[in-house]
Structures are given as C-alpha cells and as structure tokens.
C-alpha cells in the first residue's frame, strides 16, 4: 500500500474508502501469492503425499486466525469460515503441485 493512502479512520469520502479497499485487496493478493508459494515449497519438500493433509495443523491455523480476529474485534465465526476455505484451497493446491512435481 502506498504511504499516501488514508487509513480507515481518516477517510472522509467514499472515494477515499474505495481507494483503501482496492489497495488492501491488492495487498491481500500479494500475501496470498506468498502463501501459495509456501504451498509449492511444501509440495516440493514433502516426500509422502499422505502428509499433504494435516488436520491438526489445519485446526491450529484456523484457531490462530480466530484468536487474532477476536483480539481485533473482527467477526470470529466469519474469519473461521474464510480461513477454513483458505486452508482447504491451499491443501488442494498443494496436492496438485505435489502430483505435478512427481509426474513421470
């Protein structure tokens, strides 16, 4: 995000709000690109396809997101749903990458 971008509490117009939302969406995509990059790394590192899905790790990741949401006063149930979808998409991506890397 650019340094001249207004923080939410300083927005005075809907244009300010929309610029902030659009910049935040771009930043989120950059972070998702990095997160999925870690999934590519995991697919490369893990030798056993059965280790791609780790329900204990999934539960810890979602619990951490919920705790962070609660600390920030965000809707924790909705954050849990978003993170569940994010983790499931990440797992599916990692499976695809794991298979792609080991094609004959």
Structure commentary:
The protein is mostly helical. The protein contains 3 helices and no strands. The chain is elongated and about 55 Å long.
What is the level 1 CATH name?
Mainly Alpha
Q: Note the gap between the termini.
A: 43 Å
The SSE order reads HHH
Per CATH, the superfamily is Chorismate mutase
Quaternary organisation of the protein chains: single chain
Fill in the CATH topology: Chorismate Mutase Domain, subunit A
Number of domains: 1
- Low-pLDDT parts are none
Strand content: under 5%
What is the overall shape?
elongated
CATH architecture: Up-down Bundle
Arithmetic mean of pLDDT? 96
Question: Main sheet, how many strands, which sense, barrel?
Answer: none
Strand and helix layout:
Elements: H1 14-45, H2 55-72, H3 76-101
Helix pairs in contact: 1-3, 2-3
Q: What features would you highlight for this structure?
A:
single chain; 104 residues; mainly alpha; Chorismate Mutase Domain, subunit A; elongated
